[in-house]
Amino acid sequence: MPQGSAGKESESPLTGYVLPDLFRLGIGIWGGGIVWTVHFLSIALIAEWGCFTGLGEWRWLGVTGVAWVIVMISVLMSLVCLGVVWLAWDTFKNLNRSPASCPSDEVADVYDRPGNHRSLAKVGLFSGLLFLVIILVQSVPVLFYLTEC
Amino acid sequence: MAEELAEPPMKEKEQHLRATWEPATGFPGVLSEVNNQILGLRFMATAFAFFLVGGLLALLMRVQLIVSHNNFVGPQVYNELFTMHGSTMMFLFAVPFLEGMALYLLPMLIGARDVAFPRLTAYGYWVYLLGGIIFYASYVLGQVPDIGWFGYTPYSGARYTSLSTDFWLLGLSLVEVAGLTAGLEIVVTILKFRAPGMTLGRMPILVWSFLVIGIMILVAFTVLLTATVLLELDRAVGTAFFDVERGGSNLLWQHLFWFFGHPEVYIMFLPAAGIISMIVPVAAQRRISGYSLIVSAIVLTGFVSFGLWVHHMFAAGLPALSMTFFTAASLLIAIASGIQIFAWIATLWRSNPRINPAMLFALGFVFLFVLGGLTGVMVAVVPFDVQVHDTYFIVAHMHYVLIGGVIFPIFAGLYHWFPKMTGRMMHATMGIYSFWATFIGFNLTFFPMHIMGFLGMPRRVYTYPRELELDGYNLLATGGAFLMGLGVLVFLIDVIHSLVFGDKAEDNPWQGDSLEWSVSSPPPIFSFITFPIVRGRHPLWENTAADDTELRKLQEVLTAEPQHWRGNLVTDAIDATPQAIQHLPGPTYLPLVAALATSIVAIGILSAAYLVSVFGLVVLIVMIMRWVWPKRQVLEFLRDSDLPERSGLPVLLSGTLSPTWWGMICWLTMFASGFSALLYTYFYLRLFAPQWPPEPAGKPELWLPVLAYGVLLIGSVTQCRALKAFRLHQEEQTLWGTLAAIVCGLVFLVIECWEFWRFGFTPMTNAYGSIFFVMSWAVMLSVLIGVFTSLVAAIRYPKIHVDYPESMTLNLELAALQWGLTAGVGLLGFITLYLTPFLLAK
C-alpha cells in the first residue's frame, strides 16, 4: 500500500510525480497567518505597553519611539510576508511546470498528488496575498499617530 | 496479502458488522452508547431544546418592551432574562448545535464510520447536558444569573453578586469543557479518518470550515475556561485578579473574555457559511466557484478573528493608537466574508437553482448577513462605535449577524439533511411558510432596532422613557418577534409531521455531490460498509480519474471489516493514503461516570462543600485512568487479528499513524493556550502596577527555583531519552529514564511546595500573589500529568514491551510529548516569575 508523503522531495512510487517539500507547502498555507499574528500581537502590545511607558515620550525626528518601533516591525513583517508569498508562488509555479503535474487520467493515481499539492499551493498563495494586504493596511494607522500615542 | 485465507461469505460478514455496531438497547443503551450518529443527533436535539427556551426568554423581554414604562417584569427579572437568553443562545445552543452537526455529519462527509474518539464524544455530550442543567437549576434555587452573557467584573465579583454568578460560571465551564472535547474530536477525525483519495485539496468546504473552527475552539475556549477559573478563584478563594484595590484589573476580564468572545462569533459563522457552501452547488447543480479562494478566506478568518477582540472594548478607554489596529482588522475581515458571498453568487450566476426551503433559508442568510456585515463595518470605526455602543443599534447588528448568519444557515442545513438523518422528506410548503414567517418576523423585529439605537434607546435596560417616542418601533419589534416565533413553531410542526407522515426519502433526494448522499437514508449506524474511494471534490458527480488496482483490492478486503470490533481506516493527513486500521471502543458507561464526576466537582464548588469536589475529583481521576489504560484483552484480539495480514495495514498504532498521538497534540495546544492566557495576565497586571513585585513579595530568591526548574528540565530530557532508548531496543535505559522522569517530577513538586511555604505572601495577598501562585500551579499541573503518563508507561512496561511494542511506543511518546510541554511551560514560567522582576525591574 502507498504510505504517507515524504517530508522532503521524493518520487511517488505510483506516478513518477516529484513530491514538493511539504515544509514549503505548509509555510505557504500557514506562513502568512503566522507572520500576521506576530505582526499584530507585536504592534498591539507595543502600542498598549509603549504608550504607558517612556517609549511614548521618547522622540527622534519628532516621531515617538512607539511609532518608530511599529513602523520598523511593520516593514520587517511585510517583507517576511512577501517572502512567504514568493515561496507559495514559487511552489505553485514549479508544480505547474512539472511534466507529471498534469497527468492524463491513465497515469494519475487516485490521490492525484499533483492536483492536491497544486491546490494547496494555490490556497497558500491566496492566503499569503490576503495576509500581506492586511499587514499593510493595518500598518497605516500608525502614520496618523507619529507624534502622539 | 493473504487473500487465499478462508473468509466467510459477504452476507455473513455484513451481519457480523451490523451486530458489532448495533447500538445497545433500552435505558442502558441510552446511557452507554458512544456512536457519533446517536450522540450527534442527541447534541442537536438538546441544543435545539435550549434554543426554544432561549427564544421564549426573548419573547418575554419583548413583551416587557412592547410599551414604555411597562410593568410586566421588573428590572431584576429583566436582567435575569437577558443574561439567560444571551448565555443560552451563545453557549448552550449555537456552538453545541454546530458541534452536534459536525459530530453527526463529519464521518459521512469524509467517508468514515465514526469519529476518532467515540468515548470523548459521549463524555462531551454528558458534560454539556449536565452543565446546561446546572445552569438552569439556578431558577429552581431562585439564584438566577443577572450579569449579562459576558459577565463583566466587578459586577460579577463576589462583592456584588452571590450564588447566581457561580451557577453561570460553573455551568458554563462544563459547557466549555464539552466544546473543547468536540474541537479535539473534529480536528483529529478530519486529519486522520478521511477516505482514501479525499486529499486536503478535495475536502468539502464544510469540512474545511469544521477543521478551522476545531483549531479555533482549542485556542479560544481554553482562554475562556482559564478566565472563568480565575474569576471563580476570585469569588471562591479570594484571589485578586479582578480586584482593583489589590492590584487586579477589571479590564483584564474584558480582554480575556473577548479574546474568546469574538472568535466564537466566527466559530459559529464559519460552519454556518460552510453549510451554505454545501447547499448552493447542490441547488444550482454545478461545482462551487472559487474553491481555493474560499478555503483561503476560511483560513484567513480563522487567524484574523483572534485580532478583533478589542473592538468590543472601544468605549473602555484604551490607547487610541492601539484601537486603530483593531479597527483595521475589523474592517479587513469583511474581505474574507465577501469572498465567500461572491463565490456563492458566482455559483448561482445563470444557473437555474432549485428553490426549496433549504435554498430559501440560504438566500435569506446571504441577504441578512450582508446587512449585518455592513453594520459591522460601521461599528468597527471607533467614533461611530462610541456613539452607538450601548444602544439598540448594537442589538440589531448582533442579531443580524447571529440569527441571519448562523440560525438561518442552521435551518437551511436542517431542511437539507433532514431526509438523510431521518429517511423522511419534510413538507416543502410548510417549509416555505416557516421561512417567510421567520424572515419577515426577523426583519420586523430587528430592523427598527437600528433606528431605535440612533434615537438613543439604551440596551440592557428594562424600560424606556415615553418622551423618546419609541413605543411604535417597539410594538413593531415585539410583533415581529412573535411572527418569528410562529415561524419556528411551523418548523417544529413540520419536523414532527414529517417524522410521522413524511414521504420516504431517497438516498440522494437533491442529487447531492458529497459522500453522505451515497449511503442510505437514514444511514446505517456505521455509515459505510466499506470505505469509499474519492476521486474529486464532488465525489458523486465526478468519476473520471484513473482507478487504483491496489486500492480496489484493499477496498474488497475491508468490505464489512473489521467484523468483530468497531474500527475505521486511518489515512495520511495530507494525501489521504491508507495507513492503518484504528480500533474504536463500543458502548461503555465510563464517559457518563466521568461526566457525573466532573459535575460533582462543579457542584461541590458551587455549594462550598469542597470535600464533595475532592470526592468528584478522585472519581474523575480513577475514571481517566481506566479510560486511558489500554485493555490487555483488546490488545490481544488486535494482535491475533488476521486483518493486518490480509490488508497489509497495522492495527496497533503509534506515532503520527495513531489518532491518539494527534489527540495529544491537540491537548498540548489547549494547555499552551491556557498558559498563554496566564502569561498575558501576568504582564497585563504588571503593566499597570506602580511597583512590581509589590510589597510584601519583593524580588524572588533564585537558588531554590533554579534547583526546582533545573530538576524539571532534567526530567523532561530523561523521558525523551527513554523514548529514544526504547526505539533502539535499549530496555534498561528505557525503564530507568522513565523512572528518573517520575522522580524528577516528584522532586520538583516537593521543592515547589517548600518554596511556597517559605513565601511571605499568599494567592490572596494581592494580584501579584494570585498570578504568581496560579502560574506556578499550572506548571505543577503539567508536571503532575507528566508524572502520571510516565507512571503508566513504567507500570505497563514489564508486561507489554515485548508483546505489544507499538502500544509501549505510543505510551512513551505521549509521556515524552507531555514532558516536552512541561519543559516549555516550565521555562516560560521560570523566566516570567523569577527573572523578569530583575530584567524588567519596576
Overview of this protein structure:
The complex is a heterodimer of chains A (149) and B (842). Chain A is mainly alpha-helical. Chain A contains 3 helices and 2 strands. In chain A, helix 1 packs parallel to helix 3 and helix 2 packs antiparallel against helix 3. The longest helix of chain A is centred in the middle third of the chain and has 33 residues. With 842 residues, chain B is mainly α. Chain B is built from 25 helices and 2 strands. Chain B has a two-stranded antiparallel sheet with strand order 1-2. In chain B, a hairpin with a 6-residue loop joins strand 1 and strand 2. The N terminus of chain B is likely disordered. The chains are: A mainly alpha (149), B mainly alpha (842). At the A-B interface, helix 1 and helix 3 of A face helix 9, helix 10 and helix 16 of B.
Write the layout of secondary structure elements.
The complex is a heterodimer of chains A (149) and B (842).
Chain A: H1 22-50, E1 59-60, E2 63-64, H2 65-97, H3 113-139
Antiparallel strand pairs in A: 1-2
Helix pairs in contact in A: 1-2, 1-3, 2-3
Chain B: H1 10-21, H2 26-32, H3 36-64, H4 75-110, H5 118-140, H6 163-192, H7 205-236, H8 250-284, H9 291-304, H10 320-348, H11 357-379, H12 382-388, H13 392-422, H14 428-454, H15 471-501, H16 549-557, E1 567-571, E2 578-583, H17 590-606, H18 610-628, H19 632-640, H20 643-647, H21 659-688, H22 703-727, H23 731-758, H24 767-800, H25 805-839
Antiparallel strand pairs in B: 1-2
